[in-house]
Design goal:
It contains 5 helices and 7 strands. With 178 residues, it is an alpha+beta fold. It has one domain. The structure holds zinc ion. Zinc ion binds next to loops.
C-alpha cells in the first residue's frame, strides 16, 4: 500500500460531519509499524473503532482498541504476544485561530480545516500499551521457552574474551608471515 493513502485512512473529516454520532474503523497491521521503522513490534493485529461525537464547536472521539501486538521476550528471546484492549479519549476543539494545547488529549483545530489526522496519536496510544519490560508472564500458556533460557544461561557463562583472543592470534600470525 502506498504510504500516502495509508496516511489518509486516519483522516477524520470532522468539518462535513453533521451534529451527532459518527464512527470510523481502522485496522492496524505490522505495515503500520514498518512505516515507523519500529522493530520492537514484530507483528500487529489491532482493530480500532472510533466513536465520534460531533458537537457545534467540538469533536469528542473515543478510540476503542482491541487486538494484539507481537514482540520479543527480553528473557528467552522468543516471540511474546501482548494484548491491546483499551479506550482513549481525544477532544478536538474547533476555534477561530490556531492554539497550542497543554493537555495531551485536547487538540485545537480551526474552522478552516476539513479533517484531523489521527495517525501519530494512534501510534502513540498503541505504544503506550507496551509494558516497560517485554517478557512472558509465565502464567498459563504464556511461558518462556525453557530450552532457550538454558542456552542463554550457558552462553553467559562462557568467557567473553574468546573473540578478541582469536583476533590477536590472527594479528600475530600476520606479523610472522610478513
Ligand atoms: Zn520468554
Amino acid at each position: 500500500m502506498e504510504e500516502k493513502s495509508y496516511f489518509k485512512q486516519f483522516d477524520i473529516g470532522f468539518q462535513s460531519m453533521k451534529i451527532g454520532q459518527h464512527f470510523q474503523d481502522l485496522k492496524i497491521t505490522n505495515e503500520f509499524f514498518e512505516m515507523y521503522e519500529n522493530d520492537v513490534v514484530t507483528d500487529a493485529n489491532i482493530d480500532i473503532h472510533i466513536d465520534i461525537e460531533r458537537l457545534e464547536n467540538m469533536v469528542i472521539m473515543h478510540f476503542h482498541f482491541s487486538g494484539t501486538l507481537t514482540s520479543t521476550c527480553d528473557l528467552c528471546l522468543e516471540k511474546v504476544i501482548i494484548p491491546v484492549e483499551k479506550t482513549e479519549k481525544l477532544i478536538l476543539k474547533i476555534v477561530e485561530a490556531p492554539q497550542e494545547s497543554d493537555d495531551e488529549n485536547i487538540f485545537y483545530v480551526t474552522e478552516k480545516e476539513h479533517s484531523f489526522n489521527v495517525e501519530q496519536i494512534t501510534y502513540e496510544y498503541i505504544m503506550m500499551s507496551l509494558p516497560m519490560k517485554i517478557e512472558h508472564s509465565n502464567e498459563g500458556e504464556d511461558r518462556c521457552n525453557p530450552k532457550m533460557l538454558e542456552l542463554l544461561r550457558q552462553a553467559e557463562k562462557k568467557p567473553e574474551t574468546t573473540e578478541i583472543d582469536s583476533r590477536w592470534e590472527a594479528l600475530k600470525n600476520l606479523k610472522l608471515d610478513s
